[in-house]
Amino acid sequence: MVELDHVGFSYRGRGGITVAVVDVSLRVARGATVAFVGPSGCGKSTLLRLVAGLLRATAGVVTVDGRRVEAPLKNVGMAFQNPVLLPWRTVLGNVLLPFEILDAHRDGDAADRHAQADRAQELLRTVGLGGLAGKHPRELSGGMRQRVSLCRALVHEPELLLLDEPFAALDAFTREEMWELHQTLRQTREFTGVLVTHDLREAVFLTDTIYVMATNPGRIAHVHQVGLGFPRRLADCESAPATALIHAMREQIRQAH
After folding, report:
1. Rounded to an integer, what distance in angstroms lies between the CA atom of residue 233 and that of residue 22?
2. For the chain, which domains are there?
3. DSSP 8-state secondary structure symbol assigned to residue 96
4. Contacting residues for 109 by C-beta, under 8 A, at least 6 apart
């Protein structure tokens, strides 16, 4: 689904050329979910934006679904640490936003809009927000707003879901609830996922493969296959294999600066 072939990205700033990432090669199979972890400034979010087409690689080739990425992708869902919901729109209105953007490039009729609203309502029910479609973001908790953000990212059934620390601002209990929700959605929505996170337990719980990155310049230093069954329980993160993996990655990140 996703392939990076010797990908690099650099940019010119006041101090000259900065190399953000260099020589990154990897493949993400359709339906898999992978994570990028590592110290701040190692290029994790840069790689996510290269995959999404929000940045264009200055070296190598990024391919998604067999096509070279040279512009922002359409069939992609994205969620960030800040849900960035439009405060003047209802929950349902926020979730429907991707359809409005896509419909701007084609003619949509009333039947299409009705089907889109039905799909949005179904997704809201799936994440436990079925009775809150008419609420506004200010009336929701942080965890609820992040659930809305996930619904908005998935409502148009994208083949690719990109997550940039989407649960980092939540309290520990709510964060774990969101992990379990993500797993439920993955079982029912059939997407390929790329996750950026600083939380190693989160990476172990949610993904199949974890890429540990190093800095100066940003690059992949280690690759780990998680090796746990699916679906997972939170207790699996406390198992001996998971604990050993987390300790190993923590030490690798310490040495990656």
Report:
1. 36
2. 2-254 (3.40.50.300)
3. T
4. none
Residue ranges of the alpha helices (H) in the chain? 44-52, 91-95, 97-103, 110-126, 142-154, 172-189, 200-206, 240-254
pLDDT, tens digit, 9 for 90 and up, residues 125-168? 999 998 899 999 999 999 999 999 999 999 988 999 999 999 99
Question: What is the arithmetic mean of pLDDT over 186-196?
Answer: 92
Task: Quick: pLDDT tens for 86-115.
Answer: 999 999 999 999 888 776 555 556 668 888
Phi-psi region of 31 (alpha: psi -120 to 50; beta: other; left: phi over 0): left
Length of the chain counted residue by residue: 257
Candidates 57, 48, 46; CA nearest to 2 is: 48
Residue 103 burial class via C-beta count within 10 angstroms: exposed 0-12, middle 13-18, buried 19 and up:
middle
CA atoms within 13 A on the CB side of 160: 20
Residue pair 124/134 in contact (Cβ under 8 Å)? The answer is: no
**Cβ–Cβ under 8 Å, residues 62 and 6:** no
For residue 83, the model assigns a pLDDT of: 86
Token pair recorded at residue 48: 């996510």
Question: Average pLDDT of 57-73?
Answer: 95
